[in-house]
Amino acid sequence: MTDYLPPPAQDSPVAERPTGAADPSTAKTNKMPKVAFASFMGTVIEFYDFGIFGTAAALVFAHAFFPALGTYAGTVVAFATLGVAFVARPFGSILFGHFGDRLGRKRTLISTMCLMGTATVIIGLLPTAATAGVVAPILLIVLRVAQGLAAGGEWAGAALFTSENAPSDRRGFWSMFTNLGGAVANILALSTFFVTGLFMSNEAFIAWGWRVPFLLSIVLVTVGLYARFKLEESPIFANEVKRRGRSSLPFKDALANQWREILLGAGALVSSFAFGYIGIAYLINYGTATLHLSQHGVLAAGIFGNVVNGLAMISGAILSDRIGRRPVLLIVNMIGIPWALVLFPLLDTESPVAFWIGITVSFLIAGHGWGVCGSFLSELFHTRYRFTAAGLAYSLAAILGGGVPPLVAASIIGSHGGFVFGIFLAGYCLVGLACTVVLRETRSRALDELPPDIGFARADNN
Known about the structure:
Elements: E1 15-16, H1 32-59, H2 61-64, H3 70-102, H4 105-125, H5 129-132, H6 135-165, H7 171-198, H8 202-209, H9 211-229, H10 235-244, E2 246-247, H11 250-290, H12 295-323, H13 325-347, H14 352-380, H15 386-416, H16 418-438
Antiparallel strand pairs: 1-2
Helix pairs in contact: 1-3, 1-4, 1-6, 1-7, 1-9, 1-11, 3-4, 3-6, 3-11, 3-15, 4-6, 4-9, 6-7, 6-14, 6-15, 7-12, 7-14, 11-12, 11-13, 11-14, 11-15, 11-16, 12-13, 12-14, 13-14, 13-16, 14-15, 15-16
């Protein structure tokens, strides 16, 4: 097991004293409902934008941007563009984490929201390959990278901002609102496609209707920015600046002191991402293209699954405040192993009921893991580089768990069948189980504690 010991009270060689930003002398206390709403709205916007891209990749982008490749290859490449953002996320975590750990949480969170919103609206205005040729998919990929950079900075900032303001006995509950915003975003994204699909023909939807969800994101951005401008800086961050100054290179400090925790924290969450993003992206395409279920029925199942996802997040967060973060993650990964093996044989019965069950149970598992990760990753790392380290861990989990399975699913299932892909998913659960076993419980840790040592230590050295 590992100990998570914050940095010593004395100055480190890379520390800098306050230079004006986030002045702790003027720090005010934020009210938790206000903080939770701002974090919730931020991730609603970020992952609404992410979600509509994933849904559009499943339903439209193969025809709109990659028509020359054919349906199968075009779908694979469309999901590859989905994966591009996951590759960009760690770089966003480093970039925005640097400024979040140096200049403050609030300023950085406003920046990530602006970047994501701008990129998403522009995607809604892009010409298709029929109009612009090869330029269209290139622009799509560039904007997808921008979305990935923003998402890499958004989640960690929103989650730790909530954690750093929350009372310790309900930290799990309040931190959950960051990920709950993601579930609501997926519901909004799927609902928007569902409604637009109801009121227009399939030809009109493919021609221009898919753009509507992207353009509507400007409304959410306006609300989210208003909520974030009303917040005060995190008091724990402000106190850290007052006592010890800022880290000159948060990324360097995070890797030097807690690189193992970054990897283990990511590993503990990969199965939740795998089940979640299979449900968010791949199963939507699988239900329509492979199982030949109606698009409206598949989207309705996705909406219901994300309602279950949100309820599971609330359940996981409340449980984590009562029994700890680690037991919840252990249960998630243990239950995930048999479910991974059952999922695709169940779906391949081609029954609409089986599809609804498959997507619902997958989100039930993912939601409990996502409900814990906000408090868990915030508690795992030290204040002076928490934004950077938590963002890196989350982004690595997103790449490995959220980016890879939807990308390789079609190839593995097409070549070897759904059961083999289930074995692949079960492997993610085994990794998550092993990483969670190694990690120590974090629930009782004070986020601003300053023990005398730092780094990775064996439990028997306590």
